[in-house]
Amino acid sequence: METMTAAHFRALRTYLGYSVAGIADYLGVSINSARAWDKGAYSPPAGVVAELGKLQAATELAVTCLSDHYGRNRAEWPMEIPRTAEQINDMRPQVTMPGPVTVDWWKHVGIRVCAKVPGLTLEWV
Length: 125
Fold this sequence. Notes:
elongated; single chain; 5 helices
């Protein structure tokens, strides 16, 4: 994807579990730039679109890996997700995170894993 509309940017940002400030931090841009993309004042540049594509792919990979893990290891249920940012680095099982992920990213990943693994529930770390 070479260009991205504001609607696509906002939908993808929220789908991945990032606030405007969080996605600005992840991308290393000003919050004002992220707000402008989110509101449609202008489109994100191609480099940002590419980074978002990488983030989406890494997120999908995390969901797949965790779904496989919990599908095979019922003894490790429920899936734990962090309640605070300080708990993010303590997550087990380890997954390759796409960058500075947020607690909301983990919530979105967790609920998507639960959708793929019948009966799996979430719990706080």
